Amino acid sequence: MTNKFIYLTAFALAAVILSTGCAHKAPPVTPLPGPTVTDTNPNPLPPAPPINPNDNVVSTNGITEGGPWDPNQYDQDRTTLAADTIHFDFDSAVIRDSEKDNLTQVAAALQSDKTVKLMIEGNCDERGTEEYNRSLGERRAEAAREALVGMGIDPARIHTLSYGKDKPVDNGHDEAAWSKNRRDDFVLWHPKTGA
Q1: Taking the model in full, what pTM does it have?
Q2: Which sequence spans correspond to the domains of the chain?
Q3: What is the pLDDT of residues 69-102, one digit of tens each?
Q4: According to the CATH classification, is domain 58-191 in 3.40.50.300?
């Protein structure tokens, strides 16, 4: 009987301890020195120019040293450099050796007319998430931009956009289509008369 009483008491005590648990209050948060997320950036970038508010695109460097690039002061020319589109391998932003002649042609067009600006549009195939393809399109456009700057083109004349997978040239769902869609398109922007 005594043993039974001891076991029942021990069991009841254990049940009380488990039911109340070992609740701990979270320790107070000690603020760290330095800026917080509510602080403003001391050197914010100016806003990117509104290339086309109806397009769902990412502008990676639409700012020139002279201020925002106003596309309303320019006419688009998608035909002059249409044959100079460059293509990329799957999941890559590395410019292939076979595409370097096309970049040379783009650089020559920019060197022959110092008044034009260039928009490089980075594109991807349909595979991958929207976010991933936007980022990859940015990297592809930036790779071409850096190559052109290396050829002596003023970086302030070159702007980049990423369309991700939103502007395929071939709507197929195989490698033949995908290889056409992994590309950078080059668009010249000529100043409007009197602009």
Answers
A1: 0.66
A2: 58-191
A3: 677 889 999 999 999 999 999 999 999 999 999 9
A4: no
